[in-house]
Design a protein that fits this description.
332 residues; alpha+beta; Beta-Lactamase; Alpha-Beta Plaits; 2 domains; six-stranded mixed sheet; five-stranded antiparallel sheet; 41% helix
C-alpha cells in the first residue's frame, strides 16, 4: 500500500513560515521570495522578480554576503552566515521607523545550492531573525551578572560580603609573599550597636550600617583595596602593598568620617553620636608568611584592645608580635 501523495502549494506554504525564503536562479535573479521578506524589506515580490539582489538592494549588500551568494551559484558551495560575524547582511527592518536610522534586523542567513531537474542550479536563501535570540542572550547575561554580583556583594550595604573578603585576603597574602610586599588588614565595628538597636530599632540600625559602609568606602580610594561587611556590625578592609603607617592613616580617616556623620546615639557609652573602634594588623613579608586566620586574629586582637581602652580609636599590631605588642594609634 503506497502513501497518498500530497499536493503542496509552495507559495502558500512559504508565506506561512516565520522566516525569510529567497529563491534565485542560476544567474542570481529573484525567482520568488515569501511574504516574510516582503514585510521586512518593504519590497513586494512583483517588484523584485527578475532582478539580482544587488539590483533590488543597490549599494546595501556587504561584500562577504555577495561573495557567499556568488560561490553558491558558481561552485555549489553552501554556507551559513552567522549573526556573530555577519549581523545584518540584508537591509531588513523589524519596524518601519528603523529604516530611517538604518537599524537593520539581526539575521542569520543560510545559503543552499539547489539542483532542480529541467531548470538547472538554483540558490535558496533562508533568513532567520536573531534579534529575539540576541535579546534573550542579553537578558540571560544580565541575569547571570546580577547573580554573580549578588554572590559577592552584601545585600544591605552594597559592599563586598564575607565570602569575597575571605577569598581576597588569602589571594593578597599569597601575592604579598611572592612579591615581598606588605599587606594590611583593618577590622572595625560599631560601638554600642546593640544598645543602638534597642533604642532606635533594627531598621534604624540597618541605616547606620549603610551610612558607615558608604563613609568607609569614600576613604578607600585604591582599586586594589577591598572593603567588606564581615558580619553583623563588623567590617573589614584588605589593603595590599600598605605598611602600618599607610594602614593607620586609612583607619583613622574611616574613624573620623564616621564621627563626622554625627548620627545621634543616646545609649552610647562613648559619645552622643555613633562611633567605631578599629584594629589594624600589618604583615611584613620579612617576618614569614602568615595565614589569613593569623592576620585576622591579630586585627581582631587590636580591635579588642581599642574597645577595652575606651572605644572610638585605632589600635594596631604587626605579624610576629606577642599578645602584648598592641600599639596605640590616634584618638580624637
Amino acid at each position: 500500500m503506497t502513501a497518498p501523495r500530497l499536493k503542496v502549494n509552495w507559495p502558500v506554504l512559504s508565506d506561512a513560515l516565520a522566516l525569510g525564503l529567497v529563491l534565485l536562479d542560476g544567474r542570481g535573479r529573484v525567482l520568488h521570495w515569501n511574504a516574510w521578506v516582503s514585510r521586512y524589506s518593504g519590497i513586494a515580490l512583483a517588484d523584485a522578480q527578475g532582478l539580482t539582489l544587488d539590483q533590488v538592494f543597490p549599494g546595501a549588500l556587504p561584500a562577504p554576503f555577495r561573495t557567499a551568494v556568488g560561490n553558491a551559484l558558481r561552485h555549489r558551495l553552501p554556507i551559513v552566515l552567522s549573526n556573530v560575524l555577519h549581523r545584518a547582511p540584508l537591509p531588513l527592518y523589524a519596524r518601519p521607523e528603523h529604516r530611517a536610522g538604518n537599524q537593520r534586523m539581526q539575521q542569520s542567513v543560510t545559503i543552499t545550492p539547489v539542483a532542480q531537474p529541467g531548470v538547472g542550479h538554483l540558490c535558496l536563501l533562508q533568513i532567520t531573525d536573531t534579534s529575539t535570540l540576541a535579546t534573550r542572550e542579553r537578558v540571560l547575561q544580565l541575569r547571570s551578572d546580577r547573580l554573580s554580583r549578588e554572590a559577592l556583594v552584601d545585600g544591605l550595604t552594597g559592599i563586598y560580603n564575607r565570602k569575597y573578603f575571605d577569598d581576597k585576603l588569602r589571594a593578597e597574602l599569597e601575592r604579598a609573599q611572592r612579591s615581598q610586599t606588605p599587606v594590611a588588614l583593618v577590622m572595625f565595628d560599631v560601638d554600642s550597636f546593640k544598645p543602638y538597636n534597642d533604642t532606635y530599632g533594627h531598621p534604624a540600625g540597618d541605616r547606620v550600617l549603610v551610612a558607615i559602609a558608604n563613609a568607609a568606602r569614600e576613604q578607600i580610594n585604591r582599586a586594589t583595596d577591598v572593603l567588606a561587611r564581615y558580619g553583623g556590625e563588623e567590617f573589614a578592609a584588605v589593603l595590599p602593598a600598605s605598611d602600618k603607617v599607610g594602614a593607620q592613616l586609612i583607619a583613622e580617616k574611616i574613624r573620623h568620617a564616621v564621627e563626622l556623620l554625627a548620627i545621634p546615639h543616646a545609649a552610647s557609652s562613648v559619645a552622643a553620636h555613633v562611633t567605631i573602634s578599629l584594629g589594624v594588623a600589618c604583615h611584613d613579608p620579612r617576618d614569614g608568611y602568615p595565614g589569613a586566620q593569623e592576620l585576622l586574629e591579630l586585627a581582631d586582637r587590636a580591635l579588642y584592645v581599642a574597645k577595652r581602652n575606651g572605644r572610638n580609636q585605632v589600635r594596631w599590631t604587626i605579624s610576629g608580635a606577642t599578645p602584648l605588642d598592641i600599639f596605640p594609634s590616634t584618638r580624637r
